[in-house]
Amino acid sequence: MIRTLTGKNSFALQAELRSLITQVQDEVGDLGIERFDASEVDATTVLQAVQSLPFLVAKKLVVVSSLQSNAELLDRIAELVDRTAEEVEVVLVEPVLDKRKSSYKDLKKLTNLTEFNEPSPQELPGWLVAYAKEQGSKLSSQDASYLVERVGANQQQLAREVEKLALAGDITKESINALTEQSVQSAIFSLLDAAFSGDSARALQLYREQRRARVEPQYILAMLTWQLTNLAQAVYADPQTESTLVAAGQSPFTARKSLQLAKHVSKHQVKKMIEDLSDLDAQIKTSADADAGLELYLLSL
Fold this sequence. Notes:
Helix content is 61%, strand content 9%. It has helices spanning 10-28, 43-51, 71-75, 77-83, 102-110, 124-134, 141-151, 155-166, 173-179, 184-196, 200-212, 217-236, 242-247, 252-262, 267-286, 290-300; strands spanning 2-6, 33-37, 60-65, 88-93, 112-115. It has a 5-stranded parallel β-sheet with strand order 2-3-4-1-5, sandwiched between helices. The chain is α/β, with parallel strands linked by helices. The protein has 3 domains: 2-115, P-loop containing nucleotide triphosphate hydrolases (Rossmann fold); 124-179, Helicase, Ruva Protein, domain 3, CATH 1.10.8; 184-300, Zinc Finger, Delta Prime, domain 3. The longest helix has 20 residues, at 217-236.
């Protein structure tokens, strides 16, 4: 069998790859595994590997990574399929494939192609609860949602955080706050939410936490610009739905948070916020104190 593993969900993709490798190792041992980085070998080397019979074992698995970097191999997918020996299994690994090219159509038609997409923010809390249980820990749905909001929606990063948190026992909001760092993206969402809600003290606290974490003011300003752009899309969207914003290029997580923030502001207000932030950017690039300027801007919200 020839499989193609692709998609941006590196956690799920790598988990599937490990499972396939482990299955063969359990059957025939390490002699049954051959690995190739397509960026370091030519197409002929890979073709010879898939057509050669296993040595001293009943079957073998050939794993080819970085597929997209080898144009010749992509052009010869049909040949690879034809030349693969019956006793050989092949796994082609490439997280990002160009779906416009004929090679993608060949992979989809001639191999067992599985695309691993990032789970939606709505799906992640349930997965986290189950994953924490696998690690011998307990995590409530509410605290799982909080972890996603704090760390972000990257499944691989969330898995690492759960593994770390589980070492200390059951996972609670308190342990999440103590043992994880809030992502800058998540902090900006929280910061704007606090500012829009009139909680200027909380907004300044969140800003100063980012500065203590050595996040530069210019980066915070860039993130504010990014989020206000997303917010403007949410305020002006017709209809104001997650699917509308996702179609405009936002991730589901960003779209959902942008819609929540949009409840607090009008079109006129978001336009003025962007104009004021642009003016502040120009002032910081000349002579203004970045920290003082950003704190005053947050108070003005």
